[in-house]
TrEMBL record:
It comes from the Bacteria. Belongs to the ROK (NagC/XylR) family. SUPFAM superfamilies: Actin-like ATPase domain, Winged helix' DNA-binding domain. InterPro entries: ATPase_NBD, ROK, ROK_cs, WH-like_DNA-bd_sf, WH_DNA-bd_sf. This is ROK family transcriptional regulator.
Length: 396
């Protein structure tokens, strides 16, 4: 008997870890769904669940009366909400966005704050820390954090690459690891916003999606066959560096005439002011549009047409499907989106037009932070076959 105790104990521990992992990835599950996903026999599963409930790692609950349907109510199993929490942080160019959920997938809260573009990384981390402390009315238990997911501007290379991860953010994972004392997982913030929209937002349930974020940078993400595409070096989604103007303005990527030089929020505001406008930010530009400003209207029409051209090329290359538009500039509404859609449908292959579906993003400015949480939880089927970048986990 004693010779079998070790292997049997390891097997049972493996079964427990499997159940906990599935609840972490998928959120609340019935015993039936958990059995299908785990492949465990009914008897084994029920024994494992009973033990996890008894020790407080898992909680069982019935649906609220308003949510119940006819027949016997189905009990759902979740990780104990007090067993751990996950934070997502999006370090955008001029703002920090944070979100937190517990391991039962309940959203604890979200928060954002704008900052000057020249703010240093230690200062941004301090700002993120203050925002995190404000979540849940200050009730967030930092002692129960399991990980921090982080979105940053620019390429983030795969683990093992010799290239520098994310230009200009050397040491950021170490700063965050020192601050929160948990593993840090990092990826491009725009690709994380695409992940969030594909997981919970406008593209939830879609297997094919092109996401474009028009902010102070321009980028996006691709979902192919139900999976987020990252690329071998983490360089997927750099749509802002597709050339759209011959002999155009220099771009920070080293090229000229890139989409980002005409369709980023900063470029649009600069062009508007050069035409006589006075808007200092995108909300002021949107206000001018509502007041009938012809300069703003004509400018957004031109920008929309150029973006539509790029999106048509992407759709023709990867196949028609869902196109989701996010970012601050999308808040200008029909002035941008109508000429964008007109150009997209005019330039995509005629055979494909009926299959192209254009939608605005639904998760707002915290989409990148929510995508960072999804990256940590690895809870979405959109992340199947997606390489995890967890450099700081090796150091923790």
């Amino acid at each position: 008997m004693s010779s079998q105790a070790g292997p049997l104990t390891r097997l049972r521990r493996g079964h427990k870890e499997l159940v906990l992992e599935l609840l972490s990835k998928h959120g609340p599950l019935s015993r039936s769904s958990l059995g299908s996903l785990s492949g465990l026999s009914r008897t084994t599963l029920y024994e494992i669940v009973a033990e996890l409930v008894a020790n407080g790692a898992v909680v069982a609950s019935l649906p609220e009366p308003a949510e119940r349907k006819r027949g016997r109510p189905v009990e759902k199993l979740t990780l104990n909400p007090g067993a751990g929490q996950v934070i997502g942080i999006d370090f955008a160019r001029r703002a920090v966005h944070v979100a937190a959920v517990n391991v039962a997938h309940d959203v604890i809260g979200t928060a954002s704050a704008a900052h000057a573009a020249e703010l240093t990384w230690p200062e941004r981390v301090d700002l993120a820390g203050r925002l995190v402390h404000s979540l849940g009315d200050g009730s967030l238990d930092l002692g129960s954090l399991t990980a921090v997911g982080v979105g940053v501007v620019g390429p983030v290379f795969n683990p093992g690459d010799e290239a520098t991860p994310a230009r200009g953010v050397d040491g950021l994972p170490d700063l965050l690891h020192e601050r929160f004392e948990v593993p840090v997982v990092t990826d491009n913030n725009t690709r994380l916003a695409a992940l969030a929209e594909a997981t919970w937002g406008a593209a939830a349930g879609s297997r094919e999606m092109v996401y474009l974020r028009l902010s102070y940078g321009v980028g996006g993400g691709l979902v192919f066959g139900g999976s987020l595409h990252r690329g071998p070096q983490g360089l997927s989604g750099e749509f802002g560096h597709i050339k759209v103007v011959e002999d155009g303005k220099p771009c920070e990527c080293g090229g000229t005439g890139c989409l980002e030089t005409v369709a980023s929020a900063g470029a649009v505001l600069d062009a508007y002011r050069a035409g006589g406008g006075t808007a200092e930010d995108v909300p002021a530009l949107a206000s001018a549009l509502r007041e009938g400003d012809a300069t703003a209207r004509d400018l957004l029409a031109d920008v929309g047409a150029r973006v539509g051209d790029v999106l048509a090329g992407l759709c023709n290359a990867v196949g028609p499907g869902l196109v989701v538009i996010g970012g601050e500039l999308a808040a200008t509404g029909p002035a941008l989106l109508e000429p964008l859609e007109e150009a997209l449908r005019a330039r995509v292959m005629p055979l494909s037009r009926q299959w192209v579906d254009l939608r605005p993003a639904t998760l707002g400015e915290t989409g990148g932070a929510l995508g960072a949480i999804a990256l940590v939880l690895h809870e979405s089927p959109v992340l199947s076959r997606y390489p995890m970048n967890a450099k700081s986990e090796e150091d923790s």
